[in-house]
Amino acid sequence: MLELDRVGVTLRGRRILDGVSLTVAAGEVVALVGPNGSGKTTTLRCCYRQVPVDGGKIMIDGRELRTLSRRRLSQLLTASVQEPESLPGMTVRESVTAGRVPRLRLHQVLTAVDQRRVAECLTTVGLADLAERDLSRLSGGERQRVSIARALASDPRVLLLDEPTNHLDLRYQLTVLELCRELARSQGLAILMTVHDLQQAANYADRVVIIDDGRVIAEGAAGEALRPEVLDQVFGVRGRLDRGAGGSYRLELDGLAPARP
Ligand SMILES: Nc1ncnc2c1ncn2[C@@H]1O[C@H](COP(=O)(O)OP(=O)(O)OP(=O)(O)O)[C@@H](O)[C@H]1O
Q: Is the ipTM of this complex over 0.90?
């Protein structure tokens, strides 16, 4: 559904991505993990043409990204950004409704189906009770959930989430991650998300892709990709990912890896 093939990006003369390749199939959740500044957000931004690519290609639903019209791209792929655009006085419902626009025809008003879909998205992220609240009066976590509901409202095939658990309390972190898995399974959505918490990435993604300094270092099932050597070399920590009796992963951290010369 989403395929990056040896993608390169240079910004202000600096090589930021250097031959990044990854795929996300329909129905799959892939976590993109890596240290600060490794190129995770830039990878997502390439997929919605926010940064120019100077090498390789990006395919979405079998078509090359650069050949897609802006409207077709917004129907196929949405990104949940941490601070959704808002106008003064805009309510939660209005913001999520704006996410529905790619599905409307020119000058078409919202139909009952659209309004129902917006209401469903609000319920999905637990915001139905706050639907008429002014966006400016929300907490960071509530705003994060608005952003996810807004991305879902266009019924995309590919969903990009940049640190979707940021600002969320523990309960909503797990709610959002479970929701991602459920959306992938039930609606065949292809989800690519950046995550800092490696244990959550291991437990909620089908695969992890590890990026460091603009290059993919390893990818695959969490237990294979997040090996102790990778934790050491990429993240600078000593530790391992253990699998508990119930099958879920636990990240055991022993401390910082010795500094390399
Ligand atoms: N517009 C820009 N111009 C120049 N350099 C940029 C630009 N945007 C990002 N960079 C640089 O590209 C590198 C990768 O940034 P990116 O935001 O993709 O990293 P990240 O892995 O998402 O980091 P974090 O975990 O801190 O969010 C960083 O060194 C950053 O400073």
A: yes
